[in-house]
Amino acid sequence: MDAGFEAHLRADGVEFDAADAELLGAVDEEGSLNAAADALGRSYSRAHQRLTALEDALGPLVARQRGGSGGGGSELTDEARDLLARFERLRAEFTGTAEVEETVLSGRVVSREGELATVETHAGRVRALAPAADEVQVAVRADAVTLNAPDDAPPEAATSARNRFAGTVAAIDAGEQVARVLVDVDADVPLAALVTMSSVEKLDLREGSAVVASFKATATRASPREV
């Protein structure tokens, strides 16, 4: 199992994400699932299947009315509106935290391949987008870091996340829906990651837990460092 930045709510094995929120919002605005699918450029069949799966896990989300002088239509249930409100609170908490959270690692460029450079840091080698400088600081956004249980971590060849570090959880700052997890990767500072509380529970994260932290080279930027 992994935990990344993408905001989602989970219930009975079904994840409610931004695409689902967009679908419900379109139903609310357009007045029917068919019109909502058209407005979003999605097939009605897939939209209907997705809505059915969501309702099986989360309860009634769309109330359908047939016939009548207005030709029928659909509207969101109170449960759906509560769900959208919860999701928006989660997304807002994610965004507000992610805007200020970065881990900065100091290092030296040891090789280059186009815009990407390999930087030697105390934690190990980091692939990052780097300027034409030898001494750099590498900034890793907390929302770009994915956490895996060691046994579930995919092999490096199977993922586009080029940077991988084994570490232990140093601290967990739990919010209502989102947690800030600090991982000791033998650097000068711990690596910060943002995950949902449901992911903390599924990964059974606690202080001292072993994890594998990974992040894409293209999501990691370096800047010149004065020495």
TrEMBL record:
PROSITE patterns: MOP. It is found in: Cell membrane. SUPFAM superfamilies: MOP-like (SSF50331), Winged helix' DNA-binding domain (SSF46785). Keywords: Molybdenum, Repeat, Transport. Residues 158-224 form the Mop domain. Pfam families: HTH_1 (PF00126), TOBE (PF03459). Belongs to the ModE family. This is TOBE domain-containing protein. It comes from Halorussus aquaticus. The lineage of its organism: Archaea, Methanobacteriati, Methanobacteriota, Stenosarchaea group, Halobacteria.
